[in-house]
Amino acid sequence: MVDLTEFLESLALGQYLSAFNDNDVDFETLHHLTDDDLISLGLSLGHRRKLSAALNFLETNETSEKKQLRTEQRDVLAERRQLTVMFCDLVGSTKLSAQLDPEDLRRLMQQYHHAVSQTIVDHGGHVAKLLGDGVLAYFGFPDAKENDSENAVRAARHVVSSVSQVSPVGPGAPDSLEVRIGIATGTVVIGDMTGASVTDFDSVVGETPNLAARLQTLADPGSIVISAETQALVGDVFDYEALGAQQISGFSDPLPAWRVLHEKTGTNRFDVLRGADITDLVGRSEEADLLRRRWASVEQGTGSVVFISGEAGIGKSRLLKSLRREIVNDDITRLQFQCSNFHRGTAFAPVIGYFEHVAGFAHDDNPERRLSKFKSALGENPNEIIASLLRLKNARKMSDIEPDPELRRERVLVELMEMVELRGAKGPMLIVFEDLHWSDDSTLEFVNRVVDAASRLPILLVVTARPGVEVAWTNDPHVSFMMLKRLDRKAVRALIQAVTQGRSLPAAVQDQIAQRTDGVPLFIEELTRSILHSDYLREDGDRLVVAGAISQQAIPMTLQETLMARLDRLSPVKDVAQLGAVIGRRFTADLILVASQADQETLFSSLKILELEGLVSRRGSGPDAVYEFRHALIQEAAYGSLLKSRRLELHERIGRHLMEHAENSDPAMIAYHLTEAGLRPEAIDFWIAAGDRSNETAGFAEALENYSHALEHLREISASEARHAREIDVLLSIGPCQVQVLGPASDEVYETYFTALQLGDDHGAPEQRFKALWGLWFYYFMLGAVPKMRDLANRLIPLAKEIGDEALELEGHHCEWAALSLLGDFAGALTSTEKGIEAYEEEKHHWMTFHYGGHDPGLCAHSLKAVNLCVLGYPDRAKEIADKAIGQAIRLNHGYSLLETLFCSLIVMMLRSEYDAINSQAGRLIALTDAGRLPPEARDLASGFVGWVETETGSETEGLARMERSISGWQGFWGAWCFPLDAAFALALAQKGNAEAALQIVKTASEMGGNTGGHWWDAEFNRIRGNILLCKDASEHDAAEECFVRAKAAAQARQARLFELRAAVDLTKLRLQSGDLQAARDHLEPILTKFTEGRDLPDFLRAREILDRCNLE
Questions:
Q1: Which residues are in the Guanylate cyclase domain (predicted)?
Q2: d(CA 1089, CA 406)
Q3: Contact 617, 668 (CB under 8 A)
Q4: What is the number of other CB atoms lying within 10 angstroms of the CB of residue 989?
Q5: pLDDT of amino acid 551
């Protein structure tokens, strides 16, 4: 609509503006004022006539389409949307106004406006304003199309041509007219400037119209300049001249601009729009294989037709491109026909496009050049039908060749089929018709005839179309129908990987892409590229990591046109889609009734239309029905088109309604709507409740997100003791979720618990400090920082005593015995486990299993007591306690408690060399894993022990292979706790002749122990290293002895009698070889006397045998 101020000033009547404003007269009211009204407003006779003439001129030149829109769109709310804006300016208009008689100038301007306006409307644009010598037009409003930017550029080229054909008349008139055109694309708010309703239908707020007008000034007469955004959307449909970065008035930074040269003659829409930025075919192996088989049949002489159907962006063109790449024979005849929505009204448009492409016609070819190119490309003179179709030089008009339209079409079809038949008789042919949904009727009949020919000739005809296209031949025996489905999750990840060129995206980002794109390849690619080109990620070697907080990227500009086009096709019910989008991807009928405040009958009628058009799906009926947007991005586009003020209003309305029915509502939904309404403090309790609810069902990722929202909102509130206390509670809820989602040793876990502890020291209760300390302890436990574990355990125990909570004191000792065991303080760990066993009562303390560490503290105390006892030289008592623990674990039947108990019992059995018992318990561990009660790594753990038994019992090859297959699983899952398996594997490898690999395993494990403080297996690693050296070279006597001496010293320092015995045996064997019997006896006799049990075990019997040999000699 014309702006009142601009309108009056253009007529030199600006002096009346204040009178009109004082009397509430806007431009719409102006049309209804009588002559008496104008007199009362102070207008003179001449000015009244001038105003009346201008209004009549506008009314006369306003298109019927625009009048209809004025009527229909009065009550439409203003919207946010992506818009392509064209600004067209008549060159030399000031000079024309001085040279021409006013009446001639008026006629010329009418011709100019008509030429421009009609061309814009013909290309799907909307004429927003006629500004004297300028025309402002929108593409993408009021109805978006999936190629608005392309339509705008194509319209601009035709405007240049149309205006040049205007013939000015009168003295001083120029021979022809020229225009300059600027085009820009961006997000705008369109509609009423107040944001309430569209009182001025054409008002646009945003920088895009201004940019289009500024770009116009960069254009030469008869040329078009476009913005970088427009050029990116249009792609390679046109040839351009890059103008580089331009300093444009009103814009702080220089902006790149492009001059449009001409349209390319390429026939494949996919190629010109996507250019070279094309990924490999993903997730279509079955479909590609079908096309290969059909082509193989064609090569054998049997024709075939494949009809590929699928929604926009699903991959039809990419599948065809893959087929064309695979057919490498240059002698094959290929005919490629591309239907286009721009030429649906042109008979045989794809055929014309094919010949123009093959001949290589350029936009500036003269008739002689076009004829020469045609002859050169096709090697023949065109017959009169084809020549007429292509408008070649000297060609007769088609109407002169055949006056009757039906016979004329038949003549063309006959000529085309003769071409197909002749080429088909020479050998295999590939014929492709893309986008049949945009076909004109004449081309569709051509397709029908080629389908028939494919039953007789070696032709593979491939036709693509969107759903809804009906043809008569889909059931013919030589026709295969292929409906392309959306990609599954595995294929989605593969396509993302292809777009990132092998660089790994964080799992959370991949999940977000998958959830938002619903398996549509085009959506996946464009959203992935949008994320790659944002500040969202940074490179870290060959992978990409999140640079900041994970947030949702805006819909890429490349998809905006497609998505809004789908919505605008349903403009009568689009507002209902927008309301549903505010609620979410899924919405209920009763809730959208609340949001819309419309009558039920009208609303359900609108929802039915959305359902029939495939925008939403429905479960249930009536007020209980649940609707879901079929595409997440459609929902986002509908939501994004609403003004922010309107969104706030709707979110608050929905949130308040849900709060009134909180007992039956999802707290996460309440929290979401309150947050989006800007009522963040009110949303906190609901975010926490949502987190608690998700936690109850192990939805840790959802709980983490909900708690994080609560924390964010809490931190926006002014600091107080109450706020700090709640903040600590939320942090302590976040920590366990991060452990599950991000990993227990992640940086985020540390930051959460450290922050909670800092706040707790200043503002928290002792119970809060205990939880924060324990969270840090668990972080260091999973990180393997054993000294830190011990230090924190030393703080936990006195804090628990301060609180006066026996359960927390038990947990403090739980942390202590784990740390002391890994440190190698076996005696200290034994004392701590005994305190735990004394304190533990199943009825009182089993609940701790589900809050601290994921396993029962009583079972852990018994299990690690058994391990420590065995190392300290009490293997019989260790076995007794381990067996008792297994019985209790089986009775409690808690998965991870069983895992830990069985693992510790396996270590005891390994130390006692109980091969049959190991196989039995390992089998139980494997069964639990197969039943899904334990993670896959538990199977690797069990296999490691079974493999060791095999190496000890004569099946070295099988055992080593089993251990090698399992090592990554046990090392990655258990770290330092699996040093016994690492040592055993290394020794078995050395004994089999692979000493170098064995030494590397021991070196890696020893370094890990040194780095983490996990020294509990140091003595054994030294002893094993000595034995490996002897396996490598028997002459390594001195180096091996040094290892054994270190092993013995380390064992003695830790009171590890079993390890001391083993080191003494190996030292004694060396002394025997050197003949120093007394030294041999001195190593062995003292340690044997320390053993009061376990005298029937292999280690003791082996030592006794060696000592007896010393005495005999």
A1: 84-216
A2: 115
A3: no
A4: 25
A5: 56
CA distance 29 to 764: 67
User: Which tokens sit at 1044?
Assistant: 């054994």
DSSP 642: B
One-letter amino acid of 498: A
Q: Residue 475 — φ and ψ, nearest 5°?
A: -95, 5
Domains of the chain, residue spans: 1-61, 73-263, 284-483, 489-546, 558-643, 1017-1113
Please list, in sequence order, all residues whose beta carbon lies within 8 angstroms of the beta carbon of residue 1098, skipping any fewer than 6 positions away.
913
Find the DSSP H helices in 992-1036.
Answer: 995-1012, 1018-1032
Burial letters 959-970, b for 16+ CB under 10 A, else e: bbebbeebbebb
| Sign, CA torsion 258/262/266/268 | positive
Task: Give the contacts of 1042 (CB within 8 A, at least 6 positions apart).
Answer: 1026
What angle is formed at CA 787 by the lines to CA 784 and CA 792, rounded to 5 degrees?
A: 100
SS3 category, 1110: helix
- For residues 588 and 625, the answer to whether their CB atoms sit within 8 Å is yes
Is the predicted pLDDT of residue 202 greater than 70, yes or no? no
Q: What percent of the chain has pLDDT over 90?
A: 46
The burial of 455, by beta-carbon neighbours within 10 Å (0-12 exposed, 13-18 middle, 19 or more buried), is given as middle
CATH of 284-483, one of 3.30.70, 3.40.50, 2.10.50, 3.30.450: 3.40.50
Output the pLDDT for position 602.
86
pLDDT tens, residue by residue, 565-580: 778 877 778 889 999 9
Which are the contacts of 972, defined by CB distance < 8 A and separation ≥ 6?
937
Using one digit for the tens of pLDDT, what is the confidence trace for 383-396? 778 888 887 777 77
In DSSP terms, which residues pair with 85 in a beta bridge? 138, 184
For residue range 629-656, what is the model confidence (pLDDT) as tens digits?
888 888 888 888 888 889 999 999 999 9
**Distance from chain centroid for Cα 34:** 61
Q: In the CATH scheme, what is the code of domain 1017-1113?
A: 1.25.40
The pairing of beta strand 79-90 with beta strand 179-190: antiparallel
Backbone angles phi, psi at 80, to 5 degrees: -95, 135
**CA atoms of 944 and 978, how far apart (whole Å):** 10
Per CATH, domain 73-263 is 3.60.15.30: no
Residue 430: which residues within 8 A CB-CB, separation 6 or more? 295, 298, 323, 324, 327, 332, 333, 334, 335, 459, 460, 462
pTM over 0.70: no
CATH class of 558-643: mainly alpha
The H or E element spanning position 355 is helix 349-359
CB 811 within 8 A of CB 857: yes
* Alpha-carbon gap, residue 34 to 49, rounded angstroms: 12
From the list 327, 601, 300, the residue with the least C-alpha distance to 457 is: 300
φ and ψ of 281, to 5 deg:
-65, 130
* Tens-place pLDDT, residues 793-831: 999 999 999 999 999 999 999 999 999 999 999 999 999
Residue whose C-alpha is closest to residue 1068's, from 1055, 1087, 1094? 1087
244: phi then psi, degrees, rounded to nearest 5 = 75, -175
Q: How far is CA 488 from CA 280, 290, 519, 520, 809, in A?
A: 16, 19, 6, 10, 50
Give the pairing type, strands 223-227 and 204-205. Answer: unpaired
To the question of domain 1-61 being in CATH 3.40.50.920, the answer is no
3-class DSSP state of 224: strand
State the average pLDDT for the chain.
Answer: 86
Neighbour-count burial of 865, counting CB atoms closer than 10 A to its CB (0-12 exposed, 13-18 middle, 19+ buried): buried
Residue 357: pLDDT band with limits 50, 70, 90: confident
Residues β-bridged to residue 245: 256
